[in-house]
Amino acid sequence: MTAPGKRSNDSPTKAKADGEPPAKKIAADAEETVVDLYVDEAFGVAPAVIYEVLTNGEKYAEATGAAVWKGNLEVGKDWLSGDGFCKYRALHLVPNKLIVQEWRAEHWEPSFPSSTVVTTLSPRPDGGARVVLNHINVPSKEAERLQAGWVDKVLKPIRAYLKDDKSGRPPRTGRNLCHIEIPAKDADRAGKFYAEVFGWNVAKWAEEYVGFSSGPRNSEWGWVDGGFPQQKTKQIADHEKVASPTLYFDAKPVEEFEKKVVAAGGKVLKPKHKTYYGTIAECQDTEGNFFVLYEYNLP
Questions:
Q1: E strand or H helix at 3, and its extent?
Q2: Helix, strand, coil proportions of the chain in percent (round to 5)?
Q3: Fold match between 34-161 and 177-295?
Q4: In whole angstroms, what is the distance from residue 230 CA to residue 209 CA?
Q5: How far apart are CA 74 and CA 57, in angstroms?
Q6: How far is 260 from 255, CA to CA, in rounded Å?
Q7: Fold for domain 177-295?
Q8: Per-residue pLDDT in tens (0 to 9) along the chain, 299 residues
Q9: pTM: predicted TM-score of the whole model, two decimal places
Q10: Residue 142: which residues within 8 A CB-CB, separation 6 or more?
Q11: Cα distance between residue 128 and residue 236, in whole Å
Q12: Beta bridge partners of 39
């Protein structure tokens, strides 16, 4: 998969014809921060159909307009996007289920580490597929552009190519609680604890972030995703550092739920604002507990 945040014919080193400045070099230094991107989409076609488009060069080019490789994607082989924006290498492939790639933009300095793109495909009860894409270790300055790029340049074109009219996140069977962050001094230890006690599916999403899913993603009872951010480095949401779990609630539209929070006696600590992973508002309930209203509304 290629160039999610890049327009065709753009050069990372030359000023663009429309006056947009050239992309800045991204170097690894003490001030550079990284984030992980998360895209979660429901499709009306089976996982095998989407996997075929994502790994077959001809079909991928036909769907997205990005000609990168010929034949099927191969593990261990380096690829350069047709517009020269990024290069990547397939690290691990599980047919119809998983694609793991090393990914880096060409304008990143050699000293800046490559990122990792993990795409998982799972069946839905209605015969469709859930596609979850995690882009790990992305410069925070480029997060919003790359996040939108994965949707606009990759998933939307593939949806149109497949003539799939289903869109948006998978339904959560009417449940509002969608994500929990549980602070941990040792994320691996915390993940092991919850896996052993509750049987959660636990996996490392980044160097200092272990994520989890409370149950099968196609369970009729729904599920909750979350993670164990390291206390020493992770800021919980955007408000302040806290030492207690942070709950994220599906709330669309966010502004309507802000009104409900205030009417019920709670507080809106930081009103509705955009982030690279959606729109959120940071709130406090009547007992002083911090929580986040979350609306998935990326392009």
A1: none
A2: 20, 35, 45
A3: no
A4: 7
A5: 10
A6: 9
A7: 2,3-Dihydroxybiphenyl 1,2-Dioxygenase; domain 1 (3.10.180)
A8: 554 544 333 333 333 333 333 344 444 454 567 888 888 888 889 999 999 999 988 898 889 887 666 778 889 887 776 666 788 889 999 999 999 999 988 888 888 888 999 999 988 777 788 899 989 888 888 888 888 888 888 999 999 999 876 554 444 444 577 788 888 878 888 888 888 776 788 887 766 678 887 765 544 445 678 888 776 544 444 445 546 788 888 888 899 999 999 988 889 999 999 887 788 999 988 878 788 998 876 54
A9: 0.52
A10: 5, 26, 105
A11: 33
A12: 133
Protein fold of 34-161: Alpha-D-Glucose-1,6-Bisphosphate; Chain A, domain 4 (3.30.530)
In one-letter notation, the amino acid at residue 287 is E
Planar angle of CA 56, 61, 63, nearest 5 degrees: 95
Please report, for the chain, the start and end positions of each structural domain, with discontinuous segments joined by +: 34-161, 177-295
Amino acid at 89: R
Q: Which two tokens stand for residue 126?
A: 């209605």
